[in-house]
Write a structure and sequence with these properties.
Largest sheet: none
Number of helices: 8
Helix content: 55-70%
Radius of gyration: 29 Å
Length: about 220
């Protein structure tokens, strides 16, 4: 530390000042680290989980890190390039040119297929690292786990995650909407405005319009 820095930490009485602490209990304050845009959260399991937030984040991260292979999270399947055909090059007048370009296209196709096979286990590990202990435990309890874990099959892993986590999220929304509708019914019978579980206050005029809106919302889930 330079003499200049020492002067900054020394008050007029010659005492060295201490780092600022929260509540004066001697524990240094550390500002909370915010997640960076695009950062993938750990997937949580259970009612009201963060599956949809997780899916959106890993879909973007997957494409960024794995290119076409990362579209798995949107399509539910591995990207397979279209195999070229000789008919694709009939527009060329020279037969030698057609043969040359077709041969190069086949080589490129085979390279992409091979890369997809080689990177599949990496994509499996990429998904696995973002699973919480509870999510891992649920995945391991599925009947197909032993096989797709041995094969390091990212497609089967993702299918299992969707099956076990998306359903829980939908059920959570259905339960929430059920409680909301019941609150509206009770408030409507009382003929007054009622505070709902979410803390919001709905103007119940007319009550049947609100109940109908809830039914429409539940049908979309």
């Amino acid at each position: 530390m330079s003499d200049k820095d020492k002067d900054k930490n020394t008050n007029k009485k010659g005492e060295t000042s201490k780092p600022w602490t929260r509540g004066g209990k001697g524990k240094q304050y550390a500002p909370q680290v915010r997640k960076q845009p695009g950062e993938i959260p750990m997937l949580k399991f259970g009612t009201g989980n963060n599956f949809h937030v997780f899916k959106e984040a890993i879909s973007k991260g997957g494409v960024k890190d794995f290119g076409h292979l990362g579209t798995l999270f949107e399509t539910g399947k591995l990207y397979i390039p279209m195999m070229p055909t000789k008919a694709d090059y009939t527009f060329l007048p020279d037969p030698d040119d057609r043969k040359l370009l077709y041969t190069e296209a086949v080589k490129s196709y085979m390279k992409q297929v091979n890369d997809a096979k080689m990177n599949s286990p990496k994509l499996f590990g990429y998904i696995w690292q973002y699973l919480s202990p509870e999510s891992i435990d649920e995945v391991k309890h599925q009947a197909e786990y032993i096989k797709f874990n041995k094969d390091k099959d990212p497609v089967k892993l993702w299918e299992t995650i969707v099956k076990t986590h998306e359903i829980m999220r939908v059920e959570s929304l259905r339960l929430s909407n059920g409680r909301l509708e019941e609150s509206i019914r009770v408030a409507g019978k009382a003929g007054t405005n009622r505070s709902l579980p979410t803390g919001n206050v709905l103007m119940l005029r007319p009550k049947h319009t609100l109940i109908k809106a809830i039914h429409l919302l539940m049908k979309k889930i």
